[in-house]
Specification:
Length: 178
C-alpha cells in the first residue's frame, strides 16, 4: 500500500456505481491495489443489495450515466446511511453547487486525477465523526473538488482554442468553419 495518502491499513469497502462500459470502472483496479474491497453496481437495486450500512465506507458514483441514475443512487445511499461519504465523478464541474447541499462530499472531474482522488478518499475516511456530523447538518462546508489531470486539461484547452485556426486539407483556408 502506498504511503502517499492516509488510507487506513484496514480493508475498506467501497461501492463503485457506473455503467458496465464506463471508463470509471477502471478505478476498480486502482482501489483494489490500495486495499479496498470494491463492489460494483449500475442502479439503485444493485447498490442497495451491495450496501451494508455498517460496512461500506465510501460510495463512488459516475454521474454521467443516463436517466438520472446518479441522483437516485445518492438519495438511496443517504437514506440507508447519511454518514457514508459519496464522491461523484463527472465531466460537469458546475454540478458541485447542486451536489454539496444533498450530502455529496466531493466531486472528481473527468479525466480523473487518480493521485488527488486517492488523497481525497483518505481525507474523507479519516474525517472525525463530529466533523462529519457538522458537515451533514450543513453547519460546516468542506466540499472537496478534484480537478482533472492538469496535463490533460492543458492539452484539451490547447486543442479547443487552436482548432478554429488549423488549416484543413479540404479547403486550404485558415479560419473558422463557414
Amino acid at each position: 500500500m502506498s504511503n502517499a495518502h492516509p488510507i487506513s491499513a484496514m480493508k475498506n469497502k467501497m461501492i463503485l456505481v457506473a455503467d458496465e462500459n464506463s471508463p470509471v470502472r477502471t478505478l476498480t483496479a486502482v482501489f483494489t491495489a490500495e486495499g479496498f474491497e470494491v463492489e460494483q453496481g449500475e442502479n439503485v437495486p444493485e447498490v442497495c443489495r451491495a450496501f451494508d450500512p455498517y460496512g461500506a465506507q465510501l460510495v463512488l458514483v459516475d454521474f454521467d450515466m443516463p436517466a438520472d441514475r446518479g441522483w437516485d443512487v445518492i438519495r438511496a445511499v443517504k437514506g440507508l446511511n447519511p454518514f457514508v461519504p459519496i464522491i461523484v465523478v463527472t465531466r460537469r464541474a458546475a454540478l458541485a453547487e447542486l451536489l454539496a447541499p444533498v450530502g455529496v462530499d466531493a466531486l472528481a472531474e473527468k479525466p480523473v486525477d487518480v493521485k488527488t482522488l486517492l488523497r481525497t478518499v483518505g481525507q474523507l475516511l479519516s474525517e472525525p465523526l463530529a466533523e462529519r456530523v457538522e458537515r451533514i447538518c450543513n453547519r460546516l462546508s468542506n466540499f472537496r473538488h478534484v480537478a482533472p489531470e492538469p496535463w490533460r486539461f492543458c492539452d484539451d484547452l490547447l486543442k479547443r482554442y487552436t482548432a478554429p485556426f488549423l488549416c484543413t486539407s479540404e479547403t486550404k483556408r485558415w479560419g473558422l468553419n463557414e
